[in-house]
Amino acid sequence: MLTKKGKYGLKALVDLARLAPGETAFITEIAQRNNIPKKFLDTILLELRNAGVLRSKKGPGGGYSLSRPASEIRIGHVIRTLDGPLAPIRCASRTAYEICEDCSDPETCRVRISMTSVRDAMSSILDSMTLSEFAAGGVLAPEAAVEKQARRS
């Protein structure tokens, strides 16, 4: 499930994606426009800056902006940065795999196998979707996301 941190981060990025190239926005402006607590947004934007998604500038004309075009920022990367793995349960994660304490055989566990399919579908869609598509309200069907991913590879 997407946390408030992930949701607020996405809202802030959509806000920044709507700025003209070279334009910046202060945290207070982003927070007010999107009804996000400023202190929480400070932490979120710092994480996104440290992950290379944003850049910040101090002083007059300062503020936050995207570090690259919105068409080059993947939603999957943003969510992983803010919320961690996309898998609904740890045993289905590629990057944070942990065996369940009640599981006797992860290779045949029906819950893990099904949740791995869910993870793959979510990952396919979110890793294919750019911030510009997200900001425009575009949602890819899983088949379209797979095709788009294949074309990029």
UniProtKB/TrEMBL annotation:
The keyword DNA-binding applies. Coiled coil: none annotated. It comes from Sinorhizobium medicae. SUPFAM superfamilies: Winged helix' DNA-binding domain (SSF46785). Keywords: DNA-binding. Pfam families: Rrf2 (PF02082). This is Transcriptional regulator. The keyword Transcription does not apply. One of its GO terms (cellular component) is cytosol. GO terms for molecular function: DNA binding; DNA-binding transcription factor activity.
